[in-house]
Amino acid sequence: MDRLNRSEWSSGLLDRRQWFTWTKYGLGGAALAALLAQEGRVAAAPVPGQAEDLPPHHAPRAKRAIHICLTGGLSQVDSFDYKPALEKFHGKTLSSEEKPDVFFGKVGLLRKNDWAFHQHGASGLWISDLFPHLARMADELTVIRSMVADTSNHTPATFQENTGFRLNGFPVLGAWLSFGMGCETDELPAYVVIPDARGVPAGGSINWTNGFLPAQHQGVVIRSQGTPIDDLFPAQARTATTEQASRGLLDALNRRHLADHGEEDELAARIRSYQLAAKMQMAVPDVARLDDETQTTHDLYGLHGEKTGDFGRACLLTRRLLERGVRFVQLFAGGAFGSPRINWDGHENMVANHGQEAARIDQPVAALLKDLRQRGMLDDTLVLFTSEFGRTPFTQADSDQLGEGRDHNQYGFSVWLAGAGLKHGMAYGATDEIGWKSVEKPVPWPDFHATVLHLLGIDHERLTYYHNGIQRRLTNVHGHVIHDLLA
């Protein structure tokens, strides 16, 4: 005690140097310090790769998040944005003074919704028959019907959805959360990505990049079926003595290199990745052992369904990862573009495309919400359900034709949130009478991201990283918290 300034001690905070000064005088002190750290009583000084202005900046409503990312463009007028006027205008020409600027330049006749809408739950929220299972969870949802994006091109639109910028090279939301919040466990990464079992989205790993943040904050891919992570175990069995000796040698070489050349982000990140991998060898097989769950849980998620099995495993794996301290899990529903389509890009035939994709995820996503609620986890978990943009209320066809598909629509689309700190069973904002453009309370991605960070206890203007002469942040120079969504 005498070795520490008493004013520093009474403040309840010890920096890194003071902590080591105190703990070196007794094992009991070190044990107590570990317990205090778990309770947030001891603050470590910033370390490389960690945000300096450490969150929480205010009392968080959520401590972890799930992001379900629908690649390709979910049609808002067929899912969460009911437009009765489309029935009246079905088959008619869009009455507009300006020709709509759409991605493929074909503006066909107006088309009514392909799935009937009904009001659901005590809230009476309008949801279509495209998502019958999710409709039963209507009172958990907070729907934003007035999202807007800056582009209708898939790749830059997906970048903006995940990073706030249309260009690649910027950190995604999960990387920012890893950087700012760290992880609740040292056995698993802070940020885990579960791609669609059919393939990764266009651009591959750029969709979960750390960008200019330290390399340790990149998303770690875990598969929902088959081998969870490649090369987690050595190809040939080794004795414990050999394994320990090889790791000791590698550690010594790395430390010598760092001593000679200084802290180097890529090498430091690689060292940490090896350390994490050693712990993941025990943790990952356990967390991926879905057979440990009851048959009731398997049935809830549709694990044995021909259509729901893949995404059901991804959603159940997500819940198990959160239970073990992972901070942010991102699930992709939809892979790369091509033929046949394995995403939500319904240019040719909406019924075939969206019907196929919704059948894969509807039951599993609803099950995830229900399971989290039953376990008391939804009270401090934030769930995001987004797509890079929506689809047009008119068909993608020649001007005098009523096609079966819809083009991209950046001007007005729907996303939803669920869980901690939100008003539930409500819809925010509105598009025009046919569901083309946002006309009431438009929400750009910076506002969405600012609100997500706020719910996690983070001031979006304070979570920054100095890069190329600029204090960068997820929301760039924009962003306002949408307080009307908050409970």
Using the 3D structure, state the CATH architecture of the largest domain. Answer: 3-Layer(aba) Sandwich
CATH topology of the largest domain, anyone?
A: Alkaline Phosphatase, subunit A
Q: What is the C-alpha radius of gyration, as a whole number of Å?
A: 24 Å
In CATH terms, the superfamily of the largest domain is Alkaline Phosphatase, subunit A
Question: What distance separates the N and C termini?
Answer: 45 Å
- CATH classification class of the largest domain: Alpha Beta
* Gross morphology: globular
In terms of DSSP E residues, the strand content is 15-25%
Fraction of residues in helix? 25-40%
Mean pLDDT across all amino acids: 87
Topology pattern, helix = H, strand = E: HHHEHEEHEHHEEHHHHEHEEEEEEEEHEE
Main sheet overview: 9 strands, mixed
Structural class: alpha/beta
User: How many structural domains can be distinguished in the coordinates?
Assistant: 3
Contiguous helical run count: 13
The total count of strands amounts to: 17
Enumerate the spans where pLDDT stays under 50 for 5 or more consecutive residues.
1-48
